[in-house]
# Entry
Amino acid sequence: MRISRKLLIGLGGLGLAVALLVTGCVDNVKKQSAAEKLGKPSSYADVSFDHSPHEDMDCKSCHAYGATEGSKVSASNLPAMDICVTCHKEGGDAPSECSTCHSEISAMKAPADHANGWVRMHGSKALFSNSCNWCHEENTCSDCHATERPMSHTPTWARSGHGREADFDRKQCDTCHQADECSRCHQVKPFSHYGAGFRFAGGHAELIAKRGGTRSCRVCHEPDLCATCHSN
# Structure
C-alpha cells in the first residue's frame, strides 16, 4: 500500500510537535527543580514552601520512595504533615506557627479521614495520636464533651464500668474529669472493700494480686499508706 505524500508530511509534523512538547515539559521540570533548589516557593503543593532552609538535610528525611537530589517531586512522595511537625512544633528546631507554610489557613480543607461518621470514630484516633492539636484547641473538645458524653458512658457506667477503665488508663479520664470528682464519691469505700474475706491485714493482698498491681489502689491511697505497714 502506498502512503500519500500529504499523510507523510502530516505524520512528520505531528511527531515534531510531540517532540517539542516533551522537550518543553522536560525543560520546564528542570527549570522548576533548579528554581526550587535556589529556594523559591514550591508550586507542587498547596503551601508556601521554601527549600533553602532545608538544603543541608537528606532528601529522604522528608521525601519517601528513594527521593534524591534533582528527582521530580510528585504527589506520591510529598511529605505528610506528621513529617513536618517532627521539627515544626513548640520547642522544636523550626517555627511552629501554621502561617509559616499555610498562607490561607481559612481555606484549608478538613483531612480526608474527617468524612461521614468521623464524629463517632474520632475518639479512638485522639486516644493514640496527638495530631488533633495541629488544628484544634482544647476547648474544641470541651465544647462538645461538656454535654455530649462518650459512647461508653451508659446509664450504668458509674456503677459497672468506669473503675476498670480508670484502672487501665487514668489519663484518659483526666481529659474531662478533675481529680476531686473521684474523691466526691470515693470517700465512700468501694464495693470490693466490703466483700467477704476482705481484711485490711492480709485480705487486701489477694485483691491486689487479682488486679495485677496497686494501680487501682492508688486512685484513692497514697504510697505512704502502704509504708505504715510494709517496710519494703
